[in-house]
């Protein structure tokens, strides 16, 4: 099992995330584009090797974000039309989400029901902080990218409200 701590860094010129391992060493980083439409994020390992990109699709009625992993696979996060509370849907995603997805306290399960990862958001911080436990290392890049994408979706929706 691997554990990570995600910290959002607020800075002029775009958002940045740093993801630290259990030994408090930088393991991943994500950087948002500055002055680019549509806004995009690049997720990389500490050595600079890109693992994923996240981009908002333009010309859609409801917000839709694509996460593309370096291996060529991709999935989408899209907002569903509701009146009471924001609801989102993951498509082309090979894991099941269990728990409170948008309050960021949830688990990811594979198609056999095995636990793959647990994600929880820490409260009472000025910027976003998440704790991630990954039990199946085959999904490590996907889980890290998903957490960054979720925070990106939340930030975009908050700024549009």
TrEMBL record:
<comment type="similarity">
    <text>Belongs to the LOR family.</text>
</comment>
<dbReference type="InterPro" id="IPR007612">
    <property type="entry name" value="LOR"/>
</dbReference>
<dbReference type="InterPro" id="IPR038595">
    <property type="entry name" value="LOR_sf"/>
</dbReference>
<protein>
    <submittedName>
        <fullName>Protein of uncharacterized function (DUF567)</fullName>
    </submittedName>
</protein>
<dbReference type="Pfam" id="PF04525">
    <property type="entry name" value="LOR"/>
</dbReference>
<dbReference type="InterPro" id="IPR025659">
    <property type="entry name" value="Tubby-like_C"/>
</dbReference>
